[in-house]
Amino acid sequence: MRLLIAKETELRRRYEVRWRLTGVATRRAGWIADPDGLNPIAILNGHFPPPQAQPPRNAQEWLERARPDVFFEASSLNVENGRPAIEHLTAALELGAHAVTANKGPIVHAFQELVDLAREKKKRFLYEATVMDGVPIFSMFPLGLPGADLRGFSGVLNSTTNVVLTEIEKGRSFDEAVKRAQAMGIAETDPSADLDGWDAAVKVAVLAIVLMRVPVKLGNVQRTGIRDLSEEKIRSVRNTGMRYKLVCRAERRGDGVHCCVQPELLLAGDPLANLEGSSSAIRFDLDVFGFSLVEHNPGIEATGYGLLADFLRAVQQ
After folding, report:
1. Is CATH 3.30.365.10 correct for 147-297?
2. Report field, pTM of the whole predicted structure over 0.85
3. Catalytic residues
4. Each residue's pLDDT tens digit, 86-108
């Protein structure tokens, strides 16, 4: 929302797009809806309107009252089944809103269903911010690479593990490195999903499902996290010019895709080995050529930009 406010004048002048906030749902504030518009600056500062006499009881009622043209979904990832994000996106599409998400769960667990529903309702289901924040991965392929066949990809896609490994190389203990990532706002209070490779595995599945058009199940992604790497080993290989990184890979094999996430020892000349801090990168191998994308130390605005870009794609269709 901060990015929408900051770019409001540009959106109006350059794209002829005006917006107003008609609904907000958070754990703290509950379900707030006003089709005539809420004050976004007040909301950002924690000043919510007085509770309604009969507040919405669930997402369905909230959406019916807010009457959005575009719905943004950014709830926490549920690795097991992608809920309740799937229900929220479904409800928005059913009510005639474009659905934009930063949540990877619905892609892994209900991608085709949501795509089909969006097509039926003549609306957009967009998800650019799910992998590498605002880097235009998903929007790039259909527009910039028509007719190209994606054979596979490899990358470092989890910022937390990259920060942790970098900090251990500098001399910090594993626990200290995790706390450093948390202090930077990159790691969650419970960083298990990152350290055990779940976040990276979900991203591999998302990329394979969307870009390679193979319905990969999360359980089919071979997954190993970084917990079993010793601090001594991480530092000793760094001294020899090599580095450990949590690497994501997918390779097309016949009608399927082999997917894995695991710590790999990389030579210093490998572009993935040179990633520092929260940076991430991916290399795509096409039938005609290969190319790489690098995101340098993204902040929260990078994810916000992914949502903003999808917003513009939706309203300008």
Report:
1. no
2. yes
3. 203
4. 999 999 999 999 999 999 999 99
